[in-house]
Prior knowledge:
The structure holds two protein chains of two kinds. Chain A is mainly beta. Chain A folds into two domains: 19-35 and 188-462, Neuraminidase, CATH 2.120.10; 55-111 and 118-179, Rossmann fold (3-Layer(aba) Sandwich). Chain A has three helices and 31 strands. In chain A, the strands form seven sheets. In chain A, strands 1, 2, 3, 4, 5, 6 and 7 form a seven-stranded mixed beta sheet that branches. Chain A has a four-stranded antiparallel beta sheet with strand order 10-9-8-31, with no helix packed on it. In chain A, strands 11-12-13-14 form a four-stranded antiparallel beta sheet, with no helix packed on it. In chain A, a hairpin with a 6-residue loop joins strand 16 and strand 17 (288-292). By secondary structure, chain B is of the alpha+beta class. Chain B has a four-stranded mixed beta sheet with strand order 3-6-4-5. In chain B, strand 4, helix 4 (142-162) and strand 5 form a beta-alpha-beta unit. In chain B, helix 3 crosses helix 4. Strand 14 (255-259) of chain A pairs antiparallel with strand 1 (4-5) of chain B.
Amino acid sequence: MSVSISSPARKGPKPGRGVLLLAGLIAGILGVQRAEAQPRPVFDLEVNRTGAERVVVSLDPLDVDSPVEGAQEAAADLAGRLLRDLIYSGWVGVLTPLPDGVEIPGPLPGAGRTDEESRVGARISLRLSGVRPDQMVWEARLVQVEPRSQLLGKRYVIEMGTSPRQVHHLADQIVRELTGEAGIAQTRILFSRKVGTGRELFLVDYDGEHLRQITRNGSLNLVPRWSPDGSRICYTSYWKGRQRLLVLEGATGKSRKIADYRGLNLGASWSPDGTELVVTLSRDGNPEIYRILPTGKVLQRLTFEPSIECSPMFDPTGHQVVFTSDRTGVPQVYVMDREGSRRRRLSLQGRYNESAAWSPRGDRIAFVSRRNGRFQVFVVAPDASELRAVTGAEDGNNEDPAWAPDGRHLVVSSDRDGQRRLWVLDVDSGFARPLTNGAVDDNGPHWGPPPVAPSADPTRRNR
Amino acid sequence: MKEIFMFSSQNLRRFGGIVLWTALASVVVFAGCDRGKESVATDPTGEDVLGRSGDDLEDVTLDQDPFGSSGEQTDAGAIDAEDLTDSATEVDLQLEDVFFDYDSFELDATDRATLAANARALRAHPEMRVTIEGHCDERGTVQYNLALGEKRARETKRYLVSLGVSGGQLDIVSYGKERPFAVGEGDAIWSQNRRAHFVQQLPPLR
């Protein structure tokens, strides 16, 4: 009964170790999801991209051994958050009903839960003990059902009354153990939020918690982009009325100016090794794309058109750059190599295609396309095939797509419920959930790298 | 000129934790993991392995969240935003804005007449410096609109220079769709926002 999880939509690395996918799961969950999607089939999904292949886990009754008041509720809260993280990964489903007292905070996709016990591939057992609320011991075990085998055991010290990061850590460990996929539960999203007449940069955890402001300069701060290792953020700022590129160094908390050319200093995207950026400058009289060093020194001008050239982004190999040009009279998405040659057009339909984002897996590119007067997110393969809509006419306007490190989720800015705020979309299943609260205008999101680079993670196996 | 932004010490500490966080988060594994795994996998009794003495568990310690775990909700209204370009000046040149069609930076006859009047005022006051702001309506993406606003400001400057205004009097900046004059939907609103807007700079000290 141990078979590989197959996902025809994905061209990235496959799990080296197949576990736990149970027969019948695909059809069953797919049925649930399709039923819930009606009568509003918002997402134009191909069947093989439904991402409905979930490993199902069950949660054992909670084991709480503590005289601390509220320990039972705290254990239930931890469990609910863990299960939510697992469901949000897109790869794991949860058996219902849940043990007494455990509730999963929403919003949740229909596909994340099933009541068919025969599908359970692994059990999760959680134990909370301790006598001090600030030093509770949280133990977790993951046990494969057939053949019986403990897959994982972790022990954390946590503080009650918080929403501890340990939950996210455990969720990512479980996802990787079950599927071979890197989870996103520990990731964060950077974005620009309207504050007064300006915009400031903010960070929020991938689940919408722990919002924090990271710039306070009273200016317009736009289009922030993490460096690949998460140590620096490059962004555009209008300090003293001039548009500049700044780099915020995590180690010092200070921003320094890296580009202050006349005109545009915009839209930086880091190379995968963090040694270069592609940016839009107009210092030579027109918006064009350049490669620069993180010091601001220009290495090469890549475009030479009288039209607007903007929104560059490296592919995950660093060999190619996707960008926007309106050389035909309207903005379209193109790809060129890092030297500016071998250009080809990627967007072949519509008269406004922009904001391309290359998946970290390299297998698809998300971009914004205006259709019937509204802006929607599409994905397409790098060879311009497999175009499909991720959002549709009933989703309002959707812009600024940015990929999660898993290459499966997108964060977008959307006004689908009136206010422009950030939403997380599961591109494979179609599930959409709001990320920020919408009281203010949020845009320009960028999804941060996981806290541990894959190659440096000693817990990583089988990859 | 010192051109480094200072951030609050609170945020400085938080952000500064990223590197440390990354480093420490990688040190979470103890050696007993695989051993515990094997012993359970071969458990012949089929007894429930859960809740044993704990030697199957790997202790995990995460560094303190570098961005704070208090879930601070920043008050969006708490910041005093200052507009550093809108400063009062002694001479009001009364420069009129020019307006553009959607996704266009072309000047029509009305715009050229407006700019001719603006050019006369600017030529009469060669000591005055002006920033031309390029603006767009809300339809479209952040980066493309910033580039489009740049084209509008640049085209406006180009035409003024062609009328004899000194290029040294004219700075340009694009705000894309980030600073709309009017908020709402419909072309009555949007057309107001597709503009090149003139802002007089402070006169030089004498």
